[in-house]
Amino acid sequence: MVQELSGLATVILPVQKHEQNTYTQGESGTPNTTIIMANQIKPIPAPKIDHKNLATLPPLSYGAGALRTCYGDLTGTDVPQVVKRALSLGVHAFDTSPYYDNSEEILGDALEKCSKEYPRESYFIATKCGRIKEEIFDYSAEGVRKSVERSLQRLKTDYIDILFLHDVEFVEEKEVLEAARELFRFKDSGKVLHVGISGLPLGKLEDLAKKIKEDNKRPLDVIMSYSHFTIHNSTLAAFAERLKASGLVSTVLTASPLSMGLLRKDDPPYWHPASDELKKAVKRSSDAVEREFSGEKLADVALRFSFSHWSGTCVVGMSSIRDVEDAVKNWWLAKEKMEEDKEKVALVKKELGEHLDTIWEQPPAGWKRQFPSKE
Q: 4: closest CA among 76, 59, 71?
């Protein structure tokens, strides 16, 4: 059991056998069930990869933050096989961070073991810098340089496709601007192809994007937020449209369609920042969906909602082959069940009531920052 896909019902889609790394979709964009073989999973269609063009990112990105113990025990997990399965199903992008314990090293080792079949040019890697531990951040130019060079070694690559400043809302604006200048230097050097910022509060992300553009005379390439395009909160759509129209960014990514394990039948992780009131509302929503729709799972409905309504890339946490396959199955089901799911989505939103489109405070009340050792 892991973070994002916990609680997903097992869904066996009749699908087409995978061949190589690509799949060409029919003109309608829907699965052609007449040529599908039972008990196989059809790979997600994705554009031919152009590392200089983020428009060629696949619809699903592998959230490698799941490759750490706070989401579950990885003992016995053959991570290279999980990663290989993801690649075989069209999940050709990976998102990680030095903050995610040893996720970068685990991912780098796994990708290296898959390199004969899936060389470096066949996938995107996104990582982050700036956040070290829960309360420890280092946005200094030197800290960014050390972090990037370390990430390159851990990921066993000579370039990073996307480099984010991690959780920008936790540090002072001047620190973000200093770190962003260093990101652009890495971009100019070719070691990083695209630069961006990540975080939760959309207003803060927009404000920083404006100031970074003013300071560097050029915009960021990408912004990523999480828990903001879900069945509970879908405010990222209008945000993305506004920022793209204003020239502040060309690409916006959404992450955590199950809101870090909140949108499921089981209780969320103990550390989840949602209020008790929101957690209770989600529990009511889950019970209502199962009661009214013959055992349907909130996690499945929520995942399909995000997949069917978001027009870009969605980062989903995965740490097992089942997680990967469930995500891909639900991506296909989202297209087929969009009309059928309307009643279920409406019921969930009704049960959420006043909590719809709300989000928790970040940084949380009482949070105190620490600074890295000078050693």
A: 71
